[in-house]
Amino acid sequence: MHDYLAYSPEVAAARAAGQPIVALESTIISHGMPYPQNVQTAREVEDIIRAAGAVPATIAVLGGKIRIGLSSEELELLGRSSDALKLSRRDLPYAIASGKVGATTVAATMICAQLAGIQVFVTGGIGGVHRGAETSFDISADLQELARSSVAVVCAGAKSILDIGLTLEYLETQGVPVVTVGQDNFAAFYTPDSGFKGDFRLDTAAEQAAFLRAKWGLGLAGGVVVSNPVPADEAMPKAEIDGITARALEEAAAQGVTGKAVTPFLLARIKSLTEGRSLATNIALVKNNARVGAQLALALQNPR
Ligand code: PSU
Ligand code: MN
Questions:
Q1: How confident is the model at residue 275, as a pLDDT?
Q2: pTM above the 0.70 mark?
Q3: How many whole angstroms from its chain centre is CA 121?
Q4: Is 140 close to ligand 1, i.e. is its CB under 6 Å away?
Q5: Whose CA is nearest to atom 18 of ligand 1?
Q6: Which ligand is nearest to the CA of 265?
Q7: What is residue 304's predicted lDDT score, i.e. its pLDDT?
Q8: Is there a contact between 23 and 122 (Cβ–Cβ < 8 Å)?
Q9: What b/e readout covers 216-234, taking b as 16+ CB neighbours within 10 angstroms?
C-alpha cells in the first residue's frame, strides 16, 4: 500500500522528527477557487500552519502516486490545470492507475491522510446532502467517508447550497460527531450560523484533542466534523447569500447539471453572482480553519 504514497521532503522530515502534521485538500484549489487566488490561498494557508508550529501536507494524485505534501510548483500546476480530475473514494484508483492529475475532495483527502497517519485535516466546507436529494439521491461521498476514516475535519460547516438539516441527520445516523467551536450552532460556510445545533461545543484545542483521543481510544473508527464559524466581520450578509444560492440552484436545475459537476458549478456561480465577494469570505474562512487545525494537531501531540 505504501508504494502508492510519496511524501514531500518537508513532510518526510516532519514525520522523522515526530512533528504535528495537518492535511489539506486539493479540490478546493482545482475546482473550488479561480486561478490565481487558489494557488495564493493554498500557499498562505500552508504558511499559517507552519507559523503555528505544525507542518502542512497538501494532498493530490500526481504521476500515479498519492502525494503527501506538494512543492510550490506542484501547487501552481494544480491551480492552473483545467483538466485535473476531482477525486472522491470512487475515483482514487483510476487516477493512480492512469497517471492522470487528480485533486482530492474531502472524502479522498481523508482516505489519504489516514494512510499517511495524519489525524487532522483542514478544509473550507464539507459536502453534504443536496437539496432535493429525495429525488436526485445526491449525497456527497464525504459523509460516508466521515463515517469510515478516522480523521478530524476542521471546516466552516457546510454551504447552504446543501440541505444542512438533512446533512446533520445523515451524520447522526452514521455516528459522526459534530463538534462546534466558539458557538453552539453548526456553521454555514459563508455565514457563522446555520440555525442548527451541533452536538458538542468544544472551544479549546485541548478539549477537542481529548475528545478525539477518547473516540479513537475506544476503537470508535471514523471521522469528526469540527465546525469553526467564519469570523463575523468576514462573513457574507445572510439575505444576500441566501438569494444568490437560490438563483444558482435554479440555474443548475435548468441546465441539467448533475453528479460531481454540481458542487463546482454552484461554487463558480455563487462567486460570479457575488462579484467575487464570496471568494474573499471563502479565503478568510479557510485561513481561520488553518489556525484552529494547527492548534488541534499540536494539542493531539502534547496532551496536558
Ligand atoms: N464545498 C466547498 N468548497 C469546495 C468543496 C465543497 O465549499 O471546494 C469541494 C470539496 O472538495 C468537497 C467536494 O469534498 O467539493 C464535495 O463534492 P461533492 O458534493 O461532489 O461530493
Ligand atoms: Mn454529489
A1: 83
A2: yes
A3: 7
A4: yes
A5: 140
A6: 1
A7: 64
A8: yes
A9: beeeeebbbbbbbbbeeeb
The reply to whether ligand 1 has any atom less than 6 angstroms from the CB of 199 is: no
Question: Residue with C-alpha cell 521532503?
Answer: 9
Tell me the CA–centroid distance for residue 261 and ligand 2, in Å.
Answer: 8
Among the residues of the chain, which ranges form H helices?
9-17, 27, 37-51, 72-80, 92-98, 106-115, 133-136, 141-148, 164-173, 205-217, 238-254, 262-273, 277-301
Of 142, 161, 281, which is best to mutate to test ligand 1, by the most ligand atoms within 8 angstroms of its C-beta? 142
Give the distance (Å) from ligand 1 centre to CA of residue 166. Answer: 17
Instruction: Look at residue 239 in the predicted model and tell me its pLDDT.
Output: 94
Q: Which cell is 94 given?
A: 483510476
CATH of the domain at 152: 3.40.1790.10
Closest to 27 in 3D by CA, of 108, 92, 90, 95:
108
Residue of 10, 76, 86, 159 with catalytic role? 159
* Ligand 1 pocket, residue 25 CB under 6 Å: yes
Q: Is the pLDDT of residue 176 over 90?
A: yes
Decide: 109 in ligand 1 pocket, CB within 6 A.
no
21's grid cell: 502534521
Nearest ligand 1 atom to alpha carbon 103: 11
Give me the domain span that covers residue 122: 2-301
Q: Could you give the number of structural domains in the chain?
A: 1
